[in-house]
Amino acid sequence: MTYIYNYPPLISGTLIKRYKRFLADIELATGEIITAHCPNTGPMTGVCTPESSVLISKSDNPKRKLAYTWEAILVDNTWVGINTALPNRVIKSALQQQLLPELAGRYTKVRSEVPYGKDKKSRIDFVLTGNDDQLPLYVEVKNVTLSEGNLALFPDTVTTRGQRHLQELMALLPAAKPVMLYFINRSDCDKFAPSDRCDPQYAQLLRQAAAMGVEILPYRFEITPQGINYLGLAELVLDRPSEVIK
């Protein structure tokens, strides 16, 4: 299988506990207990249950304080990506290769971390330009791991930063085409909605943004011990609160 991203060789283990946001104790198959860097600093609701199977990578960089990085966790027989540094890396590669059908052909140049917004104090993940007959595309990427059944949800906690990003995307209209891209870091969800329970203000802003013309793209990805596979779009559900979606 050809993956959109290939992992380095990963090591299997069992999660003992996650603590201090950045740390996770993991028992390897040998019985050795190691401390790995946890790249996800959020609450990780549903994706940090002790005794779950996990995958970790090991760095050869002697300057790192922690050689191991927690990459994925097995939740109900589905691997869920933990490394929040990967979604932007994967999306950048996909954009450079024109692999995302909804965006492909609408640009020729990809720029990362471009200053924008009021006083240029924020940075958008990607700006896509190059086609003179089309508006520039401003793409913000969010990592999604929270789920209820087959419904992926974002965010998993109140995010004032995320609220600000939506407001800044709306402010780009009509001079540019803003895109809110959700990286669904698990393959067991074929629907996506904002989490009214975790952050009702964010949910309200997302519905407002969609109504104003911000393009909402919830992309599905399959996580495997070998790599990440692109699955296409999830169904976007904005017409009712996420608590009542079946």
Any overview of this molecule?
The protein has 246 residues and is of the alpha+beta class. A seven-stranded mixed beta sheet has the order 1-16-15-13-10-9-8. Strands 4-3-2-5-6-7 form a six-stranded antiparallel beta sheet, with no helix packed on it. A hairpin with a 3-residue loop joins strand 15 and strand 16. The longest helix is centred in the last third of the chain and has 13 residues. It is globular. The two termini are 33 Å apart. The mean pLDDT is 94.
Keywords:
6-stranded antiparallel beta sheet, 246 residues, globular, 7-stranded mixed beta sheet, single chain, 41% strand, alpha+beta, 3 helices, 17 strands
Query: What spatial form do the alpha-carbon principal axes imply?
Result: globular
In total, the number of strands is 17
The residue ranges in which pLDDT falls below 50 over 5 or more consecutive positions are none
DSSP helical segment count: 3
Strand order of the largest sheet: 1-16-15-13-10-9-8
Helical amount among residues, as a percent range? 10-25%
What characterizes the major β-sheet? 7 strands, mixed
Summarize model confidence as the mean pLDDT.
Answer: 94
Order of helices and strands: EEEEEEEHEEEEEHEEHEEE
How large, in whole angstroms, is the Cα Rg? 18 Å
N- to C-terminal distance = 33 Å
Structural class: alpha+beta
Percentage of β-strand residues: 35-45%
